[in-house]
Write a structure and sequence with these properties.
Number of strands: 0
Distance between the termini: 29 Å
Mean pLDDT: 88
Order of helices and strands: HHHHHHHHH
Number of domains: 2
Number of helices: 9
């Protein structure tokens, strides 16, 4: 758990580093790593939602992170629906979140991380939203991209993506084999 003091120190460091030529990517990647933590905390605890939203809004200002951030933001808005009490509020937030998430993925259709957030969110929302096909399409696109792009992502993230897809997606035996081989390659590195 990140304490308030750690967050303040990290924010100061990130702000300072952003002023140094050549460090722009570093502070953004650090902010993305911290934002991911708050994203996953938000799934079970709504107290972290606004913090995560603020971090992804900040990242979204950078064109290189815009689509991925917007995809995360859509998932976070949809999470507001999960945490809402009234049924009409649940419906409103999920619909709004799905729209934002779809706009984000349209901006970065080849980003494995964004595709995973899109696919896993569509997978987990209730069936009456009709998004299971979107989930499967995101998973299929990830499977197409992984062989040539997995090296550009954090190994732990890719391992989690592969494990989720192996467990939840509809796969052919060849797709299962390919995912297993990629997972084993990562494990040997």
């Amino acid at each position: 758990m990140i304490t308030y003091r750690q967050h303040v120190l990290c924010t100061i460091l990130i702000t300072f580093m952003s002023m140094i030529p050549g460090y722009a990517g570093d502070w953004q990647n650090q902010l993305l790593a911290e934002a991911r933590i708050f994203f996953y905390k938000s799934v079970s605890d709504k107290a972290h939602l606004e913090k995560a939203i603020g971090m992804f809004e900040r990242l979204k200002q950078d064109e290189a992170f815009e689509g991925k951030s917007e995809t995360y933001l859509g998932a976070l808005v949809a999470l507001k629906g999960k945490h809402a009490f009234a049924p009409h509020d649940k419906l409103k937030w999920v619909k709004r979140g799905l729209t934002i998430m779809d706009q984000g993925i349209a901006k970065c259709p080849n980003d494995i991380e964004a595709l995973f957030i899109h696919g896993s969110t569509c997978y987990h929302i209730p069936f009456f939203f009709g998004r299971k096909g979107d989930a499967q399409r995101s998973f299929n696109r990830i499977i197409q991209l992984l062989p040539t792009r997995y090296q550009h992502y954090d190994e732990e993230i890719i391992q989690n993506v592969i494990a989720f897809i192996l467990e939840k997606a509809e796969l052919t035996p060849a797709e299962k084999n390919e995912l297993t081989q990629i997972s084993q390659k990562i494990g040997r590195q």
